[in-house]
């Protein structure tokens, strides 16, 4: 009990610390509708935050108007001018004055900079900036020289264009890192607000239509309200409020698991497992909410229901699904929508996965979950937007969530080993009759093996009939009599001929040997590391019922039974419905072999007698079986046994 309380307190604190540090404000609204609440006034100055769409548009406009910067590479112009000057000295026909005029013309071109034709075409009709010695100057692209336009200019100065082309090289270079840094600086300076709501100013009046402007004011009010109340004393109060809500949800989970699913949560490990799942999902929710690039819908909350169903039962899975969706909804602002989507998705997974143990069943469940999540998500978009148009890319988050669910389901094997659970996958493996222990049973006690197979078939059908776990019933029934391997010939189904070894023993000795197949079976099960739930079938398939044959022999021999406990099985009584079903199937199948006539009346009377006798001894008092379920099981046994023992056509002997 102390461990469980410590788990409850520890998880409550952990989830509360993981939750976002903001106030929960009840100011929900739907654009296009009227404000039904009281007139809302500003309790403090509130900056009006631009909505996401407006910020995106302004960022796009800023990027479109950005003036790219080109560095003026002076080394290029210096090298070309030196070459030109050297070549001019060799031209004796030119006077010194003409040489200087030519050099001045080229200096003028390179002082302004030469842009490549590709860059000029890329930024046509744009303003650009040049960086010369960290001094920025702004130009129209058309005002900058290219090699071709420089030739035209030099021609006006009496310089041969073809000769000038040898000395013209682009000297303005686009710098990606500089331009990226300048763009980021410009975007960082972009204002995220547009105006302010003063203290006491009306934000929205009762009955007023909520248009885009009012919606922006309400969103700004909620954002500022949550930010302000997350600090100081108010922050402590918010933490206490969150802690109380989280603790209440977890306490209800604890009470349900402890008192309404006691057979699963008798120890502290099952509760630890459920709470570990809660903690993992809370951590993922915190990560998704704090991340600016992830949606909370990526968190695979329905996998909690799937894993709880794999190890426990439908009721535990349903309540676990409800608890985790309530906890997760506390992390987001759109809590009702988020809660509804994930609650319905988890319930769908439970209904699809319930007692389906085929290899592809988990894929069916994940596919159904994706379909439900996408449908409800789109329905909420239509509900709040009032239009069929919208951004449907949010459905992609459910695709990612589906893959995460498949990944989490692969942890079933690890959870089994850590917490000592048994999943349907493990039961399916154990039910294979090629398992070494079942092969050993078939070799040493073939009659018992055949009896166990028949009991398993009856138990599986009965479990399906009443909604119990058919795979568990079948697997447990296959192993329920493995203790008979120690003394197989003392059990009638393994005897051949007319010799019965019990004829050489007293009734008490015979009862002890028959009784020992339960304790021997438990020892074999532990030695072979059979799961505890399978060992429950070995220990409880006879409950505390009497070994009637030898009890009657002792009573006939001595007139009384001095130690009646020696003629009763050690028990315990079945605590699971599946074990109780196995107990009924075992007794009915064994007794049916002793019938003299296999007509419907005899079989029906046998089933009624055996099952009613077990009820009279209160063997099912711990198994949570209703009288209606027992009646349905009896009817199924009657039908199955009548089909097994129906009369056949006798073929004439060959002449």
Give a short overview.
This protein has 655 residues and is mainly alpha-helical. It has helices at residues 2-18, 52-65, 74-89, 96-112, 117-122, 147-156, 161-164, 176-188, 212-228, 232-260, 269-290, 302-311, 314-329, 335-353, 361-385, 395-409, 412-419, 424-430, 436-444, 446-466, 470-479, 507-527, 532-540, 548-558, 577-592, 600-616, 627-644, and strands at residues 40-41, 46-49, 69-72, 127-132, 135-140, 172-174, 193-197, 202-204. Helix content is 61%, strand content 5%.
Topology:
Blueprint (H helix, E strand, L loop, with lengths): L1 H17 L21 E2 L4 E4 L2 H14 L3 E4 L1 H16 L6 H17 L4 H6 L4 E6 L2 E6 L6 H10 L4 H4 L7 E3 L1 H13 L4 E5 L4 E3 L7 H17 L3 H29 L8 H22 L11 H10 L2 H16 L5 H19 L7 H25 L9 H15 L2 H8 L4 H7 L5 H9 L1 H21 L3 H10 L27 H21 L4 H9 L7 H11 L18 H16 L7 H17 L10 H18 L11
Parallel strand pairs: 3-4
Antiparallel strand pairs: 1-8, 2-7, 3-6, 4-5
Features:
655 residues, mainly alpha, 4-stranded mixed β-sheet, two-stranded antiparallel sheet, 27 helices, elongated
Question: How would you portray this structure in words?
Answer:
The structure is a single chain. This protein is mainly alpha-helical. The chain has helices at residues 2-18, 52-65, 74-89, 96-112, 117-122, 147-156, 161-164, 176-188, 212-228, 232-260, 269-290, 302-311, 314-329, 335-353, 361-385, 395-409, 412-419, 424-430, 436-444, 446-466, 470-479, 507-527, 532-540, 548-558, 577-592, 600-616, 627-644; strands spanning 40-41, 46-49, 69-72, 127-132, 135-140, 172-174, 193-197, 202-204. The strands form 3 sheets. It has a 4-stranded mixed β-sheet. A two-stranded antiparallel ribbon has the order 1-8. A hairpin with a 2-residue loop joins β4 and β5. The radius of gyration is 42 Å and the shape is elongated. The two termini are 79 Å apart.
